[in-house]
Structure formats: structure tokens, C-alpha cells
Amino acid sequence: MSSSTPALAPAAGRAAPPRRNRADQNAKYVVLLPAMLYLMLLGLFPLLLSIALVFSSWQAGMPGVEWFTGFGNVTNLMTDGRFWGAFQKTLAYVAGAAALELVLGSLVALALQAATRGRAAMRLAFALPMLLPPIAVSFTWKMLFDYNKGPLNYFLESVGLPPVTWLAGQNSAIISLIITDVWQWTPFVALATLAALESLPTELYEAATVDGASPWQLLRHMTLPLLQPYLVAILLLRAIDAFKVFDTVYILTGGGPGTATEMLTFYAYVAGFRTANYGFTATIAWAIVITMSVIFLLYLRAFRRVDEV
Amino acid sequence: MESHAMRQAQERIDRAAGRGASRRSLLKGGLGAGAAALAGGRLGLGPSRALAQEPPRFDGVTLRVFTQTGPLISGPIRFHAERFKELTGADVQVVEAPNADLFARAQQVAQSNSGDFDLLLLANTWMPDFVNLDYAIPLQPFIDRDLEDEMLAWTDIPEGIKRKNSWAGQTYTFIVDNDNQTMFYRKDIFDDPQWQEAYRAATSKDLPNPPQTLTEFVEVAKFFSPDGGGADWSSEGEGYGFITCVLRGQQSYWYSYPWTAPYSVVPTDRAPGQVSGIYIFDPDMNPLINNEGYVRGLTEFIDVIRGAMRPGLDADRASVIADMINGTAVMTLDWGDIGPASVSDDSLVKGEIGFALTPGVTEYFDWQTDSWVTMPGGEVHRTPTHAYNGWSYYITSQSENQDAAWEWIKFHGSPEISAVDVASPDSGYQPWRNSHGTTLEPWVAAGWDEEEAKLYIQTIIAATDHPNAVFDPRVPGAARYQETLELFTNQAIAGELEPQEAMDQCVREFNEITDDLGRQQQIEAYRAHLGIS
User: Fold this and answer.
1) Measured torsion, CA atoms of residues A172, A177, A179, A180, in degrees rounded to the nearest 10
2) What is the ipTM metric for this complex?
3) Shortest alpha-carbon distance between residue A97 and chain B (Å)
């Protein structure tokens, strides 16, 4: 049918879209419908289901879900010492890993910026660890940390130091996880910081140098203050990522010894996949989401400051 | 993935029977013509009906089996499927999930009454979950129908296996693997007069060969460790008296069973209702794991870990087997896999591993009277432990091919086929039929000495039929209790909590789980597991 049929044209006033355009517009929605359904099924449905599960009971041995049984899962979570223990350990892990990565990454970035030759090659070399899959990294470090046959203890003993129970000590296990994370993700911090360094205005440095500022003064009074918003953003980005740690815990320690390295994500995994307590698992998952959202809001605020700078 | 070693073993059997060893001929002649020809007569079964008679045809049927990711456990299914198709026309497909995710996946399958599977080959301990969800059907009608069938060979199945197959007086599973724990020790070390003399010099006692009690076991284990008098026994590097699995999430709590059960299980003839296996819970689902007996066993377990095991607290299940067959550990208490592994090509200790029931105790804690009881006349009280109980077949209620599924179970569990599987180090199955102790050709073909194979099998069957044997509790949500027990056992091993404190906390968690799942339902299920009303 032609859209130029005069009889169908509006008599006066604002011109209505031609019929063909309306058909096109409708066709657009029809075309989009499969994608929207797909998104609804794979995104919205699990999201809503997980919210519903927080207030429902679904456990091993039950014939199905008992919907909307109340706040039992939330109450259990709030009074669950293991959850709060996992929460604290996760925070300790995130703080340790992210802080170390920030310090080391910044130092590496400053060194890279100062380097006059081979910068591209060095950047590539530094980037390699973060290109590896976490599973491969975990298995590699598992071999390195092996108490009896691992090279780390071999080197310690060769210089007269006692071997360390890297993965079996209450404190050393979480330190081992932090070392693994730092090894893999410091390059990311270094490269991101280097990008920030290179975006700083050079004229300020030129002026300060002319005024006789020493390199230390430049770093302390110019570089670090200018970098601060970037560093905060990078720190929060790493914190968000470290909060989700699972692969390394699963491979290196299995949450042990005892609960020494049981992070929130691992606890959720145990509740869901080892004991099939899905309602409780959903509650842990939402606790993680809420915590992450808070961190993300902080990140956005930090990012706004970067924009302002 | 088909097991190369199993195929080799099968071919060796076939050669020994005077048949061509090609894969094709093996499958043509089949496990029936190969293994059964050897086994026939010696089993007292006569010619196998399964192989002599025409089995029913199921042309066009495809059986789908859900089990753990191979090659262990699922490998034998694939290995035998081709022969089954030739016999019956039915295809057998395997659907796998990683072991760590198996329970949750199985729960989802059962809760959704999935019609995707005809058979499950899963933990025996999960039986109540599947039964309560009406997902596993009773096998008794099939058994009654085929009671005289020599492929089923019902009288060849030990009573202990039949008890593990039943729950609430009904048979729901068919075990094709026997998961119980026995003692493995270096008999060449124990038989060596040099070490016997050294032990006597160090302790003023004779070297028990092998240790009969847990106390003896600990003393011997410490002696053969770096701080003991017999530290340099190993020619393969630094040796230790003991090895066990201590890593969380690696089945480590099951390794505590042989230590805690003897001290906390009342001998059968003194137990309420005279049933075996009152362990972990009393008949009213009150946890028994924080009583003096259980805690003493756990304390000794931790003591031997700290005093006689390689340092580092990083040994997983694979390390236990590896340290034994690499010749760096003298003793362990483990599932039977060390037996076949000890004769594999990788083993440095071929013919040097001894087998015995797990050590016992001379006094135990009676939870009924809350007091210690000394065994009369220095008698040793043993309680062989069944951990996981064994990989078991279930037929699903949603299967449209239940007759074909049963035919597969009979085929895979037949004396002839199972004899090949249990002799293979690559199957993950341990002996579970009486005839496995007499059908020794597959064992010899796999590299065993006939007498040693016999002793190994007899030890496992003796643990199975032992009057005081305890089974892993079979109650709904068993995996949740297991995960909790593992956590607190691991915390005690790691020194995070004292054993008593750890078990007290575990009891609180157990009670919360029981209340959460419904105490009355749990009590009824547990009593069904025990076989008491």
C-alpha cells in the first residue's frame, strides 16, 4: 500500500507520520522483540528469580521451591558467623591486594615513564600476567607455593630461612592469595597509572622545574596530587574486581585451612553447589551485590573527580 | 574416554582365553566370551545365562546415564556400552558433571523430575533425597523377577552391599563400587628384621605387623617419621610414617572416619535394636560427634597428622595414593584405590603393599551410658567405615525405558563384567561381589600376584560384611551435613579450633540443619537408614 494515498492524509494541523513510517516503526519493534525476549529471559528472569529466592526456601531434598516463606534466609545470614567471617576475610583480602597493587603499580608506572628506551617492550612484558587466565595462574602458583617441592621454599631454605606453609597457615594462606592477585593485577594498575601520568599537563612540570623544584618535590607536590583522583578510581576498580575473587581460592586453598580463606563468593559457591541451599545462596549473592554497589558508587564519585580535574 | 588400561586388561584376559586380542574380536566375543569363559565354573555359576541366553532386545532405545566426569567412574560405562548394544540393540550415553558440582546438579535433576536421564550413577548416600522426591524407583520388583538370573547373581552379592543398597526396607540402588576404608601398609618394611629390631630398641615393644589398634598405629607412624627412630626407611627420599588427605574440599573429613568411628561406635551386639552403624547421630538424630569418644579419635587423627605426616598440610586425595606408591609413606587408611595403583606401571612398590582392616581400639565410648567401656580380654573393637558407601545405580521414575535400564544394570553389574572393572586401576571401582575374590584372572592380567589380589579383595569384602561396619549416614540433605563436618574437622586439623570446640560448634550447626530440614522427617529418614523403626 502506498503511503501517499491522499485519502489517508490528515486534513489539517500537525502532519501525522505517513502510514509507511508507522509500519516501519512497528516493524522495528517486531525485529527487536526476539532480542528483548532473550534479554528478559537471560537477564531479567534470573534477576527476579534470585530476588524471589531470597524470601523463599529451596533446599536439597525438597520437592521444589517453597515460595515466599518470609525473611528466614535474611535472618540466617545476619546471624551467620561464617558469613561475617567471610565478609571480614574478603575485606582484608581486597584491602591487602588492592593497596599493594596500587603502590607497586604506581612505582612501576613511574619507572616506565622515566625509561627512555624499550618502553613498548616493557609495557608488553608487564602486561603478560594479566593476560593469563586466572585458572592457569592459580595452578602455577600452587606449584610455587608447594611446601615440600615448591621453588619458593627451596629458595628460602637455600638462604637459611625456614620453609613457609604457604597454603596451610592461618595467615600465610590469605597472604598467598594476595601475592597471587598482586602478581597478576599489578600490571593493570601500572599501565592504567602510566596512562594517567602521560595525560598530566607537561607545562606545569616545565614551570616547576624552571622554579628549581627537585624530582622529589615534583612527585610529592605535583604528580601525586594530580594523580590522586585517577589512583582512587584505579583502586576502586581493583577493589571491585578483587571482591569477586573465586578461581584462585578454589584452586589454591579451597577456602581453607578451616575458614581462613573462605571469601564471600566461595561461601556462596559452597552453599549453592555443595549443599544445594539455593535460597540462602541467593541471599549471600545479593549481599555481595549490595556491597559491590556501594563500592561502585564510590568509584563513580571518584570518576567524577577525575572528570573535574 | 575409554580406559586404555581396562582395554589392555580385557585383551590380556582374552588372550589368556585363547582368543584373538583385537578390540573387535573382544567386543564380538565380548566380555562374556572373554571374562566369563575364564570365570565360568569357578564361580560355581555354570555358564553365564547372560551370555549363553539371548538377552531381551531394546532396538532403538537410548539409555542416558548421569554421573561424574570421567575417566574414573564413567569410563567403564563407555567401555562396555558397545558390547551392550550388540547384545540388546540399546545405546548407552553418558552425561557428566564435575564431582564438586554433582550433588547440586543431581538435586536439580531430581527436583525438576527431569526426564533427561534413565539412570543415575551417583553416591549411595544421596538415596533418601532421590527417594523422597519420587525420582528413584524401587529395584526390588526387578530383583524379585530376576532372582535366579545368573547375570544378576543375587546370592553372589555380600549382605553388606545389599544393606547399603536398601533404605527403609526397600532396595533402591545397585552398587557397582564398594567404598569402604581399609589399611594399606608397607609389608616389606614391617617384615624387615632390621626395622623390627630398631623398633624394639626404640620403644621396647615388638613392631606390630600390622598395627591392630589406633594407638599402635600412631606409635609406629611416628617411629617411621623424621623425628622417630626409623626415619631413614625410604629409599625414595624423605619418608614419613603416615599420609592422609587434609585439604578442605578434597574429601578430607572422610579420612577422619577410621579414627573417630572405633572410639564412638558401640559394638553391634550392644547397640539399640542391634543394628550396625550408629555413628555420627543417635537414632533420634542427636549428633554424637562431640562426645568423648569421637573427639578422642579426632584428637589422635590430628596428633598423627602433626607427628608422622609430611609437613605443609597440603596433601589432597591424590597425594595419599601418590605417596604410597612412590614409596614415601609407610601407612595410610584409605579407600581401596591404592591396591590397583600399587601394581600400576607408575608404582615403585609393586608387591610391597599389605592390606588389613582398619585398626581398632581396646576401649570405646558408650554414648548410651556416657561412659568408657574397656573391651574384655584386650579384645580389639573394630568398626570398618564406609565413606560415600559406593557409586550406585538408580533408575529414574521418569525413564520410559526402565526395563532396558535394569538390563544395563544387570549387565554392568554382572559377575563377569564387574570383575574386569574392579581389577582395573582406571575404573575407580572397588570389589563388591564375593566372586571378585575368586575371579582372579583380570587381577593377574593387571599385574597382581594372585595371592595378594585375593588378600586385597578379601579385606575389602570383610570390611563390607563386618558386623560393626558403619555406613555414611543416608538422610535428606546429607551433603549439607558432610560439608559442615568437613569444615569443622578441617578447622581442628588446621589448629583454628580445638577438637572439642570444633565438634561442639559442628553439633550446633548440625542441629540447625536438622531443624531447617524438618527434625521429624530427618529422624524418620535416619531410622530408615539404620533399619530400625
Assistant:
1) 140
2) 0.77
3) 23
